[in-house]
Design goal:
It is a single chain. This protein is α/β, with parallel strands linked by helices and 259 residues long. The protein has one domain: Alpha-Beta Barrel (TIM Barrel). 51% of the residues lie in helices and 13% in strands. It is built from eleven helices and nine strands. Strands 5-4-3-2-1-9-8-7-6 form a nine-stranded parallel beta sheet. The longest helix has 23 residues. The protein is globular. It starts with a helix and ends with a helix. About 3% of the residues have low confidence.
């Protein structure tokens, strides 16, 4: 199966951009989330990012918070994540990453979580609230299982933090486009372009931009200087408003920005 890094690099080499699509596991139900993720993969997403519903989603905006709260109200538990991954993997070969805050992974057990992640067919994990300094067990376990580990950098990150987080990442490093929580923005911050330039000056790591991307124009713009555009809120909102058909339409629309 092609890896996240291979997918991003192949698209870049061919002059095409990459679209990474976020969707929460279990929203609004487990089967609905499987159907949604498969539809995203089949209609334009190059990489899938499966979100883990969590009680304290500090980085998530209101749209995603509402979706993950509903998933939890409908009974989603962390063990259900692996059922979602297996079901999606049975239908598509699209590279698949999980996005989770660190507390649920700790509670489940780092080694157990990593093994179940790999066994289910995922390529790795995005950890928005974890820094490499505190991630030695995860990094070692991920290396043993050949799992991607995606750390975040932000406009406020020092050069040392960018070097450390990029160096510890595998797959890509996640460049947060702006200071704040996820959500749609009319104008993608210029800080994103500056941050990507710093990542590329200080490391050889691929980097994708997330937070605030919601239009084909923004997808195209981001892919001109980064290695991929990460979209979450726009997909979740499309499903909230118009169900699976709305999500398919939004995926196709955003994919027009890939060139």
């Amino acid at each position: 199966m092609i890896s996240v890094e291979e997918t991003l690099q192949a698209n870049k080499d061919s002059g095409r951009g990459s679209l990474i699509g976020y969707y929460p596991a279990g929203f609004p139900t487990i089967q609905d989330s499987v159907d949604a993720l498969v539809a995203m993969a089949e209609n334009g997403c190059d990489v899938l990012e499966i979100g883990v519903p969590y009680s304290d989603p500090v980085m998530d905006g209101l749209v995603i918070q509402q979706a993950t709260e509903l998933a939890r109200e409908n009974g989603f538990g962390l063990s259900d994540l692996f059922e979602v991954i297996r079901a999606v993997r049975a239908k598509v070969e699209t590279p698949l990453l999980v996005m989770s805050y660190w507390n649920p992974v700790l509670a489940y057990g780092v080694e157990r979580f990593a093994k179940d992640l790999a066994d289910a067919g995922a390529q790795g994990l995005i950890t928005p609230d974890l820094v490499p300094d505190e991630a030695s067990k995860w990094i070692d376990t991920a290396k043993d299982l050949n799992l991607d580990r995606v750390f975040l950098v932000a406009p406020s990150s020092s050069d040392k933090r960018i070097v450390d987080n990029s160096g510890a990442s595998k797959g890509f490093v996640y460049s947060v486009s702006t200071m704040g929580i996820t959500g749609e923005r009319a104008n993608l911050d210029k800080l994103a372009k500056q941050l990507v330039a710093r990542v590329k000056d200080l490391s050889t790591q691929l980097t994708c931009v997330g937070v605030g991307i919601s239009t084909p124009v923004q997808v195209r713009e981001v892919n001109q200087y980064a290695d991929g555009a990460i979209v979450g809120t726009a997909f979740v909102k499309a499903y909230q408003q118009s169900g699976l058909a709305g999500l398919v339409s939004k995926t196709k629309e955003l994919a027009t920005g890939l060139g």
